[in-house]
């Protein structure tokens, strides 16, 4: 067996981008994107029929669009809805959080993301947009 010597090719470091002035996902951001013609309804979760009502002009701040609610909860560590309770065998409940607790959400986000990417690509093509 013969080993081939190799040498790492130096690459320029990826520049850091200051995102502090960027808007985070919110009903207001979705509303502005919708008003600009972006297909934000593609971000609706499977049972969410009222996304446009939630983000409409003059709509109350709550309820959030489901994708906004999920983003807020996960980014702020609010995972209670994903915790499961099991018995310890002695009658005491034990609350657990494991990656499996988020399997359904992960599958939903994956499906929504695939539809969103296809719709966003079509929006870019229809509007002759390109990456900067």
Question: Can you offer a commentary on this structure?
Answer:
- The protein is mostly helical and 132 residues long.
- The chain has one domain (27-126).
- Helix content is 36%, strand content 6%.
- The protein is built from four helices and two strands, in the order αααββα.
- It has helices at 27-35, 51-55, 66-75, 103-126, and strands at 84-87, 93-96.
- The chain has a two-stranded antiparallel sheet.
- The longest helix is centred in the C-terminal third of the chain and has 24 residues, at 103-126.
- The chain is flat, with a radius of gyration of 21 Å.
The amount of helix comes to 25-40%
The number of strands is 2
The H/E string reads HHHEEH
- Unreliable runs, pLDDT <50, ≥5 residues? none
Report strand order across the widest sheet: 1-2
Number of helices: 4
The global form is flat
Number of domains: 1
Average pLDDT works out at: 92
Distance between the termini: 47 Å
- Beta percentage is 5-15%
What Rg is obtained from the alpha carbons, in whole angstroms?
A: 21 Å
Helix/strand/pairing category: mainly alpha
Largest β-sheet summary: 2 strands, antiparallel
Keywords: Plasmid
């Amino acid at each position: 067996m013969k080993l081939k010597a190799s040498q790492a090719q130096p690459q320029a470091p990826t520049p850091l981008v200051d995102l502090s002035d960027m808007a985070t996902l919110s009903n207001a951001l979705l509303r502005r994107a919708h008003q600009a013609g972006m297909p934000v309804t593609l971000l609706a979760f499977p049972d969410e029929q009222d996304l446009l009502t939630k983000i409409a002009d003059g709509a109350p701040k709550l309820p959030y669009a489901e994708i906004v609610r999920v983003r807020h909860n996960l980014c702020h560590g609010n995972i209670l809805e994903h915790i499961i309770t099991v018995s310890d065998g002695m009658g005491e409940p034990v609350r657990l959080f494991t990656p499996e607790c988020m399997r359904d959400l992960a599958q939903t986000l994956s499906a929504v993301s695939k539809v969103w990417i296809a719709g966003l690509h079509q929006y870019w093509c229809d509007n002759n947009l390109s990456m900067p």
